[in-house]
# Entry
Amino acid sequence: MEIIDISLPLSEETPTYKGRQEKKPRLERIRTLAEGANETRLTLETHTGTHVDAPLHMLPASSIDQLPLSSFLGPALVIEIRGVEAIAPEHLSPFQQFLSPRQFLIVKTDNSFSDFSRENFVYLSASGASYLAQQGIKGIGIDSLGIERDQPGHPTHRLLLEKGILIFEGLYLREVEPGFYYFLCFPLKIKGGDGSPARAILFRM
# Structure
């Protein structure tokens, strides 16, 4: 069995949404071996690095700790869409036969070959989100730190989350080949959390 880590490492160099410095994680050594043990204080936002968006992120709905663990694992299809800025229904429809309520869709784009902090990242359009909401997939992952970009009212998030489709952002997919996998991405159990950093893994038999 092949195990592929598709998580971004957390450090003070972790890329942030559109390169915003105020969103950088902070790590502070608060105790050393000379004092008995190494201990570090980590300060970060819930939507940092590889993370999961809970419905509460955009809706008066479930927080991250209220979602069943089954929401974060299952069969996944990794697809590759290159050379587009906004992912639309016509880019997704060739994979329609594989889309189902038990299947995660993970989208590899040109983001995987560029700076995660760039402002003009590839995103899922509102029409693309509407198409996926109609297909009823279990969740969607993407290789950017946001699934949409400069869309007033955040329609992509809302269309997905209203249908209970979880959003996994900040996936590192550069070396991942398209195909079928088993996906696991557990968030921290943050009470009332609108999202959480997570460790994302693909398994292939």
